[in-house]
Amino acid sequence: MGLHNLFDILSKYSLYNKVYVAVCVILTKIFYPPARLIRFPLDIRNAKNIRLGKGFTCGHGCRIEACNYSLHKRNVSLSIGENVELNDFVHISAFSRIDIGDDVLIASKVYISDVNHGNVGDSEEYDISIPHRLQQLHAKPISIGENVWIGESVCILGGVTIGKGSIIGAMSVVTRSIPPHSIAVGNPAKVIKNYNHESKSWERVR
């Protein structure tokens, strides 16, 4: 981040926030040089299995973890592309594999996890006599394409792919894959609009 960009950011804040952001910029350049700005505190767990792309930005209170503790080598299970922006209190938990493409925008309080306590899929065997916290962890990978916008308080669960250029509306729960250049909303999230490249507009699904 250049001095011009830093001064531009600081001009928008109160004196307290100016000091806070300035400190965060210094800490970012010390601990995560490729990142643009990290607003601390940031909780990163099992960092050896996480790749943060160049230009990464995040709000305060984010928790990013690769919780596959069986990985003894430096195998990446959470890959975040370039120029990805996370807002406050985003929680990303990767056990198997989560890939987030370039230029993804993620609003506050978003939860992305590829892992469950036990296999809760339709008609899958599940021993209910075992406490949920003791169930064997079961994971399905997640892929989020480039230039995706994920709205406030969205929940993205394992086994889904979100295609490039798509938008996920606030409060949605994504349990199935979303095709590229779509707008999806709801619980479970469903596609309501597709982008028309000829008219350069979003068209409602009928």
Would you give an account of this structure?
It is a single chain. This protein is mostly beta strands and 206 residues long. It has 2 domains: 1-31, no CATH class; 35-204, UDP N-Acetylglucosamine Acyltransferase, domain 1, CATH 2.160.10.10. It contains 2 helices and 22 strands. It has helices at 3-10, 15-31, and strands spanning 37-38, 42-45, 50-52, 57-58, 62-66, 78-80, 85-86, 91-94, 98-100, 105-106, 111-113, 115-117, 137-139, 142-144, 149-150, 155-156, 161-162, 167-168, 173-174, 182-185, 190-196, 201-204. The strands form 4 sheets. Strands 1-4-7-10-15-18-20-21-22 form a 9-stranded mixed sheet. A 6-stranded parallel sheet has the order 2-5-8-11-16-19, with no helix packed on it. Strands 3-6-9-14-17 form a 5-stranded parallel sheet, with no helix packed on it. A hairpin with a 4-residue loop joins strand 21 and strand 22 (201-204). The longest helix has 17 residues, at 15-31. The chain is globular and about 55 Å long. The mean pLDDT is 91.
Count, helices: 2
**Approximate shape:** globular
Total domains, how many? 2
Any guess at the CATH architecture of the largest domain? 3 Solenoid
Q: SS-based structural class?
A: mainly beta
Fraction in helix:
10-25%
Biggest sheet, open or closed, and with what strands and sense? 9 strands, mixed
List the uncertain runs: none
CATH topology of the largest domain, by name, is UDP N-Acetylglucosamine Acyltransferase, domain 1
Work out the radius of gyration.
Answer: 19 Å
